[in-house]
Write a structure and sequence with these properties.
563 residues; mainly beta; 6-stranded antiparallel β-sheet; metal-binding; beta-carotene 15,15'-dioxygenase activity
């Protein structure tokens, strides 16, 4: 971390500048993240982790091993792909699977489990026809075989409707829970029963065509997100703000995004090739959009239905465009005229960001190429053990934690030699610090980072929790001290944990005073899923709640604290 050579009392700008120079000249590895991590040798098949699951709509008890802290009171909600075929039709990509919601309800040391498929329009229509009738990220729906040959031909020229298969995350707006993907549609859900409620179209509230599944929340209760828009004036990345919840005691039980607004529209650096993004950065006063060189070919986007290509076929890794960081003041919506540029990199998830003495410190999980998104086909994930699985894993990018530091007080009048930053037409060229030691490499890098979000998002912090990727799916849980880069690890052969979620203990005084929750699955034994509870400080197991069901590998989740 970039303040490591500073004493607690040394907070001068000069010291920070000196360390920044060091960060920019000596802390970047010339070897790619893939080459730095060990190669796989005889990995086991994960086929059983990407098979369709079955609903458990009514809560069932779990078997407790160890001890579940009695102060935990709430529900661990998880989302992810859970159904991969309808009739004879099978999905191609893992991201295509129908959304399956899971709930581990924890109260007084006991745990119950329930799950439901999201009753999206996509799910319902597919189920009624017993075939895939709605196109997804990696699968194009075939024409109805009952139509005439002319109707089937002309169906290729119809613009496909975006899916509402919200299988990525649980998100919260104005106190209500929604499940979300990356189209313009969300679904409101009941976090207790997992009942599917109404479909919400972002474009009915603001002028966007999509939104991410990774919003940020401020301490006043407002929610921030990003979404695209495109038209005659070009392609824009839009920062969205949804106001805090109002008193809903007199309001109907319905979705409410009233007051949502676009606070800033950022034009694409390459209008004909805008960038794909999965999330964004937010600190106390700033939002940063990272325009990375995973490019969307708009011409192919217009023609992909005719060509019979799915969405993942129109994404390409084009490193010649580099990476651009767009800085926006969160409270005014004003975009900085400075363009912060860096070498090409790929990021899905940010860890944290905070301001310190005129600098914006941003930590995120990064890789050196973005080809990985299209590679998670079900065919690849279901490869046999041994050489076939090894070859697939060894071809994937490894994501590692990096730190970028943006100087906030820089403009066209800044001297060229200040901080050794090269300036030209008000552009800042940056390098990064590797936010890890070599110890992390043996765990295959990390992803799905989490922190003590409620108290430390947008503020200086010390600890993060993440998944290690010694396999295609996570095979370890990691706790990292970002000050010392020391790791604590939970890892057992044949066990594959989900994204770790931190839950603070009541009245916690320390940043890591609480527990970490993760759902662990295994391909080695049927119906052997369990909810794992770790002591966040020591990273040792407190207990587990075993549930006799098969749960497919999922994506993201949240803890819904109960009063």
């Amino acid at each position: 971390e970039h303040f490591k050579n500073r004493s607690k009392d040394d907070r001068s700008g000069t010291s920070c500048q000196t360390v920044l120079v060091k960060l920019q000249t000596s802390s970047v590895s010339a070897v790619s993240s893939r080459e730095r991590c060990p190669k796989a040798d005889d990995l086991e098949s994960l086929e059983h982790l990407v098979q369709s699951g079955e609903e458990t709509p009514e809560p069932i008890p779990t078997t407790i091993k160890g001890s579940i802290p009695t102060w935990i009171n709430g529900s661990f909600l998880r989302n992810g792909p859970g159904k991969f075929e309808f009739g004879e039709d099978k999905y191609i990509h893992w991201f295509d699977g129908m959304a399956m919601m899971h709930r581990f309800h924890i109260h007084d040391g006991s745990v119950t489990y329930s799950s439901r498929f999201l009753r999206s329009d996509s799910y319902v229509q597919n189920l009624e026809k017993n075939r895939i009738v709605v196109s997804e990220f990696g699968t194009v729906a075939s024409p109805d075989p009952c139509q005439s040959i002319f109707a089937r031909f002309f169906s290729y020229f119809q613009t496909p409707q975006p899916t509402d298969n919200a299988n990525v995350n649980f998100v919260k707006y104005k106190g209500d829970y929604y499940v979300s993907t990356e189209t313009n549609y969300m679904r409101r859900v009941d976090p207790q029963s997992l009942e599917t409620k109404e479909k919400v179209d972002w474009s009915q509230y603001i002028a966007v065509n999509s939104a991410t599944a990774h919003p940020h929340y401020d301490r006043e209760g407002a929610t921030y997100n990003m979404g695209n828009s495109y038209g005659r004036n070009g392609f824009f990345y839009n920062i969205i703000r949804v106001p805090p919840p109002e008193d809903k005691s007199a309001l109907e039980d319905s979705a409410d995004l009233r007051g949502a607004e676009v606070i800033c529209s950022i034009p694409a650096d390459e209008p004909r090739k805008p960038s794909y993004y999965h999330s964004f950065v937010m600190s106390e006063n700033y939002i940063v959009f990272i325009e990375q060189p995973i490019k969307l070919n708009l011409l192919k986007f217009m023609l992909y239905k005719i060509q019979g290509k799915s969405f993942h076929n129109i994404l390409s890794w084009e490193p010649q465009y580099g990476t651009v960081f767009h800085l926006v003041h969160r409270r005014t919506g004003k975009k900085s005229p400075v363009k912060y540029r860096a070498a090409p990199m790929f990021t899905l998830h940010q860890i944290n960001a905070y301001e310190d003495n005129g600098f914006l410190v941003m930590d995120m999980c990064c890789g050196d190429d973005g080809v990985v998104i299209g590679e998670f086909t079900l065919e690849n994930l279901r490869r046999e053990s041994g050489q076939a699985m090894d070859e697939f894993y060894n071809s994937l990018c490894r994501n590692l934690p990096r730190r970028y530091v943006l100087p906030l007080n820089v403009d066209e009048n800044t001297p060229l030699d200040e901080n050794l930053i090269t300036l030209h037409d008000c552009k800042v060229y940056m390098t990064h610090e590797e936010l890890h030691d070599d110890q992390l490499l043996q765990y295959g890098g990390l992803e799905f980072p989490q922190i003590n979000y409620a108290k430390y998002n947008g503020k200086p912090y010390r600890y993060m929790y993440a998944c290690g990727f010694g396999h295609v799916f996570a095979d370890s849980l990691l706790k990292m001290d970002v000050h010392t880069k020391e790791l604590k690890v939970w890892r057992y052969p044949g066990l594959y944990p989900s994204e770790p979620v931190f839950v603070a203990s009541p009245g916690a005084a320390e940043e890591d005073d609480g527990v970490v929750l993760s759902v662990v699955v295994t391909p080695r034994k049927e119906k052997s899923t369990f909810l794992l509870i770790l002591d966040a400080r020591t990273f040792t197991e407190l207990g587990r709640a075993e549930v006799p069901v098969n749960i497919p590998c999922g994506t993201h989740g949240v803890f819904n604290e109960m009063g």
